[in-house]
Amino acid sequence: MNNNITVEDIMIKIKEEVERRKSEYNNINLNSNESEIENIEQIDRLSFLFNQESDFFLKDIYEYADFVKYNDIEFVKNIYRGLLNREADNLGLENNLNDLRSGKYTKSDLVTKIRFSKEGRQKNIKLLGSKKRLFVYFLKNIPFIGNFIEFFINIFTLSKKLRNIRAYEAYNNMRYNEILYKNTIIVNSINDKIDKINNVLKTKINKIEFEKLNEILQNKVDKSQVREIYNQITEVQNEIKEDIKELAICKNEFDSYFDKKLFDYENLKKEVYKINQNKFDQFYVDFEDKFRGSTEEIKERLKIYIPCLESLSFEKDKTKIIDLGCGRGEWLELLKEKLYTDITGVDINKIMIKINKDNGNNVIEYDIIEFLKKTPENSVNVITGFHIVEHLGFEKLMELIGEVYRVLKKDGIVIFETPNPENLIVGACNFYTDPTHERPIVPSFLKYLLEINNYYNIEIIRIHRLMDSYNILSDNEIINNYLLNEMDYGIIGFKK
Amino acid sequence: MKIVIMHQTISKHDAIGNDIFFFFYYLKKKHDVYIYCENLLNDNLKSINRKELNFLLKEPKNLLIYHHSIFWIDGEKILDTAKCKIWIKYHNVTPPFFFKDYTEKYYYLCKEGRKQTKRLLDKYSENLWISDSEYNFKELNIKLKENHTILSPFNNIEKFKDVVPDKVVLNMLLNKNNKVKLLFVGRVAPNKGHIKLIETIEKYKKIYDENILLYVVGAFDDELTRYNYLLKKQITDLKLEQNIFFVNKINDENLLSFYLGCDYFLCLSEHEGFCVPVVEAQSLCLPVISSNSSALPETLGSDQIIFKNDEILSFISSINILENNFEYRKFIVDKGYNNYNLRFKNEVVKEKLFNFVNNEKG
Question: Computed from CA positions of residues A230, A233, A235, A241, in that sequence, does the dihedral angle turn out positive or negative?
Fold first, then answer.
């Protein structure tokens, strides 16, 4: 492709593009002319301020007049350029200027001094009349006599010196006028700028708008209006204060009519909780009927704990027994059959309570932990709880175990029964059939909880082996154990 | 024949420094070569002292190659006293008026440097004068003779073969693929046309769109603070702070990244005796758009995009045309690369140099 292209083709395309854009480009330039002029003006002015450009020219042979016609900084700089072929360094410039300005040296002295300095001698630039001046310079610097010589030289050269002074005065006047002229230009230019700015400002702030603005501002700071508003606010504040006083009186009257307890939040919460709890009472009765087993089956299962009770040193008629979460009352029935007399069942389910009462059991409708809290310490021989601990969260469980211990008499016994999660089927499935279960409790963990609460002789009884009911067999013994482990376990502990 | 190469200040990274280094490097293979300078800023070279220099310059068979680019009164004195053969490698001295508004020192040095060039031309009119470009001779307004010849300066472009571009810089540039990225490389000095570069960017923004960036790579000079200030002010006044970036002096890795990551090399210099960055750009396949001032057209070679310095609309139109025509862009890149390859590769320059030396010996 490149073979067909020439640079002329490209240039033609560029020129076409230039033609297309020309008018647009010219418009831009027209609009920006003003700013360009401004920049040029600025550069000129800066040049004037900064540009110390000298008209000094380098030559092969110099006369003193080539240097002495300049003044001050320019004079010293030109000596360096001419005689040392370099720009003056800062230190040299400063020292020589000091000598010149203090009157220590005349201009021609300074030229001579630099010409015959070490560097000046190396450069060896031709300076006409320098030897004569060096001789004079040398004479003037002879101690004591030098002053007389300088005096006589001055007398002889007085008329020349006066002529130089007049020339210098004229030169200064010329410079002064020049600077004055340049200053005038600058001042005029600044004044123009100020005028321009003023004009811009005038056009930008419309007079009518300014007056309106002024009016608005004045209104905003109208003091009488502010005072009026302040008075109104104070009035309203006073009215509010009166209202608050009246409200306080009303509140006192109200409090005297109603028992404060009625508004006790904690009580109210409990009442609400109770109401919510009872919503599921019927559900739980039906659930137990369906999943837990018949009353007879349960009674049969619970017989396993009777020997423990009978081994106690307490007499049966003096053994106070509390069954927490008594449910349908199977355990209470069994205890009655075994001739125990002081038996109390506690449950929060209204329907369960009713069933128990209908069967002649001594039961109380109460939250089990609240019930224990109201029971005196060291007052009960036996406390049981079948399938209740798995319904409690950890904190409540800890509270229950602690309260049971407090309430039990010395050598009193506690029996809890709960699903055994060592059986995989229970742990993974059956446990979750009951929606009110919190979490399965591993036997060793429950034992640990009793231990740390000071129970002793703690014993775990694993019960209801699944093999009795199902034929689950695997070739692997370990798996068998996991599947065939007892489905529940009981834990028994004594109070020290 | 022993050869002495002489210059006032020899730096490491500038064009004259590189030229001197390769003079030394190539001549050293066949001759005894020595360097003499007042200030040496290159660790790879060593300067003989004045006594050794004087000794070498007494021998008529020896050769002194004086690289002339600035006012050096002492250099002139050495030439005047030398008994050996003398070549003058002329690199050009920037016209003093560029510095008049900014620095007295450079103005003085350039003014005296130019005067010195004329003196040397008179004194050494029969010696071999080697110029970086034809323009340098034209500018001196002299009648060319057999002893006036052209030898472009050696460059250090081949070093880029061993340089790994800086990933961060390159990625930064390549990620701005929706913007046109222009590059200019050269020290920040009034003859380099920065004011026109800034103006070009402003006009491009107004005529085309805002998606244009200019990276100016090159060292700032403390002597030129007024110039630096004016550039900064111009950028601020035209609200181009987001479009123009002065990168100052950078290392080779970053420089290569800029050459590779930018889209065009825009050179609007007003005075160049030669222009090494333009050749660097061509060698690295960056299309160059340039002004026709001084030695630039000669350096760029044929088939490149060149306009008069004040044709700003042409410069921005060129960018637009190349940006929208890949074939055109490729054409300019190919021709630019050929220019470097055929004219300015060090091997090509070296052959010419040895021809001169052989003639001198012969």
Answer: negative
pLDDT tens digits for range B171-212: 889 888 789 999 999 999 999 999 999 999 999 999 999 999
Tokens of B112: 């005296």
Which residue, chain included where needed, has tokens 């022993």? Answer: B2
Distance CA(B125)–CA(B137), nearest Å, equals 13
Q: How far apart are CA A139 and CA A143, in angstroms?
A: 9
CA distance A411 to A492: 12
**B contact residues 177-236, partner A, Cβ 8 Å cutoff:** 203, 206-207, 226, 230, 234
Identify whether the C-beta of residue B183 lies closer than 8 Å to the C-beta of residue B265. Answer: yes
Whether A10 has a pLDDT exceeding 80, the answer reads: yes
Out of A2, A24, A53, name the one closest to residue B330 (CB).
A2
Start-to-end CA distance of chain B, whole Å, equals 11
> In angstroms, how far is CA A448 from the centroid of its own chain?
45
Which range has the top average pLDDT, A188-192, A245-249, A444-448?
Answer: A444-448
Compute the distance between CA of residue A349 and CA of residue A365 in angstroms, rounded to an integer. Answer: 7
pTM of this prediction?
0.50
Pairwise CA distance, residues B61 & B84, whole Å:
6
Contact (CB, 8 A) for A312 and A319:
yes
Lowest mean pLDDT among A15-29, A314-328, B80-94: A15-29
Q: Compute the distance between CA of residue B297 and CA of residue B269 in angstroms, rounded to an integer.
A: 11
Helix, coil or strand: residue B121: helix
Does A398 have pLDDT greater than 90? yes
Rounded-to-integer distance, Cα A360 and Cα A351, Å: 14
List all residues 6 or more positions away from B11 whose beta carbon is below 8 Å from its beta carbon: B17, B41, B42
Q: How far apart are CA A131 and CA A137, in angstroms?
A: 10
> Is B314 part of the contact surface with chain A (CB cutoff 8 Å)?
yes
DSSP A83: I
CB-CB neighbors (< 8 A) of A9 in chain B: 328
DSSP A386-447: ES-GGGS-HHHHHHHHHHHHHHEEEEEEEEEEEE-TTSHHHHHTGGGGSTT------HHHHH
Angle ∠(B138,B22,B302) on CA atoms, nearest 5: 45
Alpha-carbon distance of B17 to B25, in angstroms, equals 12
Q: Which residues contact A359 (CB under 8 A, 6 or more apart)?
A: A329, A333
Contact A34, B213 (CB under 8 A): no
Q: Give the separation between CA B187 and CA B269, rounded to whole angstroms.
A: 11
Chain B hits for A81, Cβ within 8 Å: 108
Q: Can you give the three-state secondary structure of A129-159, one letter per residue?
A: CHHHHHHHHHHHCCCCHHHHHHHHHHHHCHH
- Using a CB-CB cut-off of 8 Å, the residues of chain B touching A11 are 305
d(CA A337, CA B185): 111
Chain A and chain B share a number of CB contacts under 8 A equal to: 77
Kindly state the average pLDDT of the residues B8-36.
92
Q: According to the model, what pLDDT value does residue A243 have? A: 81
Interface confidence (ipTM) of the complex: 0.87
Q: Is A325 left (phi over 0), alpha (psi -120 to 50) or beta?
A: left
Q: Do A10 and B314 touch (CB under 8 A)?
A: no
Average pLDDT on A205-210 reads 61
